[in-house]
Amino acid sequence: MSCHVLRLVGAVVITSSLFVGQTQESKPQKPDDKTGKPSGSAPITVVTSVDSSRTELPADFKPLIGLDKRPKLDKTTELQLVQLFNAEIARVRKPLPLGTKDIVVTPDGLVRPGDARLNQLASTIGAAAKVGDQVKITSIVFREKSVYIEVNGGPKRKSKWYEHISVGGMGGAVGGQDPNQAAATGSAISLEFKNHVPEMNAAELRQLLYPIFDFSLKSATQVATETLPPKVQAAVKSHQVLVGMNRDMVILAKDRPEQKFREKDEKGREYEDWVYGKPPGEVVFVRFVGDEVTQVKTAKAGGGEMVVKTEREIDVKDGVASLASAKPVANNGNQEAEQPQPTRKPTLRRDDDPPDPAVPATTAPGLAAPQHKEDPQWGEKPPTTQQPPPSQPPPA
Hints:
Layout: H1 2-23, H2 75-85, E1 89-92, E2 96-97, E3 103-105, E4 111-112, H3 115-125, E5 127-129, E6 134-142, E7 146-151, E8 166-169, E9 172-175, E10 187-192, H4 202-208, E11 213-214, H5 220-226, H6 230-237, H7 247-254, E12 259-264, E13 270-276, E14 283-289, E15 292-299, E16 306-309, E17 314-317, E18 320-323
Parallel strand pairs: 3-10
Antiparallel strand pairs: 1-6, 1-11, 2-5, 3-4, 6-7, 7-10, 8-9, 12-13, 13-14, 14-15, 15-16, 17-18
């Protein structure tokens, strides 16, 4: 009983102290004569709210003019844009929160929510992509007044039909959806228009999505082509095949072949022919021995002449291409063939040394120069000379 009384008394005392503290009036402080502010007052802190709807536009963004006056997007253009943008790779200019589908872009370049809100959501629920990350467009849908784009799988994971089936028994249920794989892996963006989705091409759609996506990424073909020598780059751009290319280079230049034939030549070596084109047009036969092009035959359109190339034009070693070594040019009638120069024996004398006084510098006219015998080299036997037989003594 005494404990309950003490608790009630304590509660009454705390309530009364709070009431007194709220009803006390603060005494006005006298202003300072010099500054006009209350003397002894604490510094005043001004708190401003961050505008979460503000969006920083890229400096080189140029909005399209007159979209409202264009006709509605037709089905043919829609299918072409879906084929071009599906599985497209781009870099993001804004943070994309994980599982978010309410990011909206307008033709004027405004993005909702703003930069501050997007950063807050990305730090709170996770980011599907940070600024500068590469993303993959996994779905694009054209609606009445908007274009809906999903990246990295979208805000909601798509499940398969068999993931909803589970079989139960005495040992428990088997199958069903894995809860660890049900989380979203991407995000979604909507490009909204005022009246309808207007007629546009792929370059204009990329320009409208420029505030969020940067499509100026080099494709794998461009990156691979830039590592090749200039002659090979020119051949790839003009869709020509050079003797010495490997299979990857031929695919860069001509794409994958329509037909392939594998046979053996007269020496029993296996080769493979890649055929591009069909008659009566131009037909190109590219022959591979192993991973190297050894022959290129081109049949001109309309039954023209057959052009055959077998001379190596480039060398490919360890995946690095270089121009084939130049062969010596045959001498014509006006040019003299280079004669091999005689090799000089090693000596300790220099060209500017004075002549040896033991050797006569000149010979008398009409006399042949003395023939100096060379000393035998180390390891060689001295030359044998025939000496005259000894003189016989006169008979007695």
